[in-house]
Input
Amino acid sequence: MQRKTGEKIPRLSRRLLCAASLVRRGARAADVGCDHGKLAAWLICSGQASSVVATDINPLPLQKAQELFRGLGIEDRTRTVLCAGLDGVLPNEAQDIVIAGIGSEVTTGIIQNASWLKEEDRRLILVPASHHERVRAFLYRQGYELLSEQAVFEAGHCYSVMHARFCGCTREIFPAFAALGLIRPQQGADAAAYCARELEKARRVRQNTNDPQKAFRAQQVENFILAELGQSTDGL
Ligand SMILES: C[S@@+](CC[C@H](N)C(=O)[O-])C[C@H]1O[C@@H](n2cnc3c(N)ncnc32)[C@H](O)[C@@H]1O
Output
């Protein structure tokens, strides 16, 4: 896609840049919960996406996104929709769908409400704001699979940028996989920080729960992470 003169590529945080880079070149994309609209604008101005439908449930953020698109002269390749999730999006205008900065429950609800996402050629790019383990468990239970995950440490938070697609195979996943997904400590500093946090969380759960099943699951997560770190579980 040729950039028009005057289009400036907006700067994205590392988290959003990582998510935006996963959109396939030339794809029709959706940015759900677009807020400021910077990710959608980046996708167009960089030539990564051919069009973007940007949705938000609140009018004020959507207005900000509209102003940004107007200022950049990219209204012809963007559409803004005031709606919950993907409710106002047509299946043929969104091959690659980004849902970033939204909590796990809302994120999974948005996916659940759009049954047309269950096609192998579509891609989900998810950066949940909370409970990553619930998103992973939901994806596999619904027949999606993770293609990649990247940990991004930003503003004191550990995020996972998840890249997923529908494969039709529904599965229950183990607690350790729910906790880490495809992230491993050897993948770099952000991934190591992510694993360290999950280890700490599992330890806290195991030490503070009276539920033996919960303690057992937490212990499994701990053992898995320690094994990945190459540390012994002796003496725990
Ligand atoms: C924290 S901001 C995240 C913005 C951007 N995606 C990011 O990751 O930086 C969350 C945005 O999602 C919008 N939002 C929350 N729930 C939504 C829903 N169910 N459907 C669409 N937008 C939603 C909010 O209005 C807000 O603008």
The mean pLDDT is 94. Residues 16, 32-33, 35, 55-58, 61, 84-85, 100-102, 106, 110 surround S-adenosylmethionine (CB under 6 Å). The CA atoms of residues 17 and 46 lie 11 Å apart. The chain has eight helices and seven strands.
